Automatic annotation (TrEMBL):
Residues 177-218 are annotated as: Disordered. It holds the Pfam family Fer4_7. It is found in: Cell membrane. [4Fe-4S] cluster 2 binds at residues 68, 103, 106, 109. Transmembrane segments: none annotated. NDH-1 shuttles electrons from NADH, via FMN and iron-sulfur (Fe-S) centers, to quinones in the respiratory chain. The immediate electron acceptor for the enzyme in this species is believed to be ubiquinone. Couples the redox reaction to proton translocation (for every two electrons transferred, four hydrogen ions are translocated across the cytoplasmic membrane), and thus conserves the redox energy in a proton gradient. This is NADH-quinone oxidoreductase subunit I. It comes from the Bacteria. The keyword NAD applies. PROSITE patterns: 4FE4S_FER_1, 4FE4S_FER_2. Its main location: membrane. Its cofactor is [4Fe-4S] cluster.
């Protein structure tokens, strides 16, 4: 073939690809207007589940954090008290964060969770332009309230123990269950600091320093 005919045919051949593509079925996805339906076991955003009476399943054990290959989970556990109870047993997850800038949605954390507190939803709308917004807090991850649930903190079902919750014997909140007044550890600390400051400011107060609080065990 001559050099002259190449000069003419090559651009036409290029347009041939364009023309062929014009009559093919479009593959464009109309996201976010049309959301794709995921497979039932798709690994999307995590969820912290509740017992049927509304108490939290997370016991703050940190096994999920240790199982995570991307170091994306941060957990701080704390003790329940009779006045402020978030889960049926001794401990609950006071602070729970997942960093979706790190998470690879592999699901190893949910396999490690001994109480099935942590599962994954089908929600894949996780992109954000801010790194800070990609750190999801416990409040964002905690499941909503279904019928028969009362938001934590509240008392354990009367006559039941922690094991009964895992045996499925508690199916809804006990009649008359009300949410306990939550006193967060931070506000407790703030008020302690305020009272310390007040007493230090008081005339004749001793100048000794109070031993530093070691914080809630992790
Ligand atoms: S899904 Fe995988 S990467 Fe994401 S938090 Fe769980 S263990 Fe870590
Ligand atoms: S989500 Fe599960 S594994 Fe993680 S701290 Fe809570 S109970 Fe433990």
């Amino acid at each position: 073939m001559s050099e002259e005919s190449d000069k003419f045919q090559n651009p036409v051949a290029g347009f041939g690809v364009t023309f062929k593509a014009m009559f093919k079925k479009r593959l464009t996805e109309q996201y976010p207007e049309q959301q794709k339906v995921t497979a039932p076991r798709f690994h999307g955003r995590h969820q912290l589940n509740r017992h049927p009476d509304g108490l939290e399943k997370c016991i703050g054990c940190e096994l999920c954090a240790w199982a995570c290959p991307a170091d994306a989970i941060y957990v701080e556990g704390a003790d329940n008290t009779d006045e402020e109870r978030y889960s049926p047993g001794e401990r609950y997850g006071r602070v729970y964060q997942i960093n979706y800038a790190r998470c690879i949605l592999c699901g190893l954390c949910i396999e490690a969770c001994p109480t099935r507190a942590l599962t994954m939803t089908n929600d894949f709308d996780l992109a954000d332009s801010s790194r800070e917004n990609l750190i999801y807090t416990k409040e964002q991850l905690l499941a909503g309230l279904d019928e028969g649930m009362v938001d934590s903190p509240h008392a354990i079902y009367p006559g039941m123990d922690e094991q009964d919750y895992y045996r499925g014997l508690v199916t809804e909140a006990a009649p008359g269950t009300v949410q306990q007044a939550a006193v967060s550890k931070d506000s407790e600390k703030d008020s302690e600091e305020d009272s310390e400051k007040d007493s230090a400011d008081a005339p004749g107060a001793a100048s000794g320093k109070k031993e530093k609080d070691a914080g809630v065990g992790a």
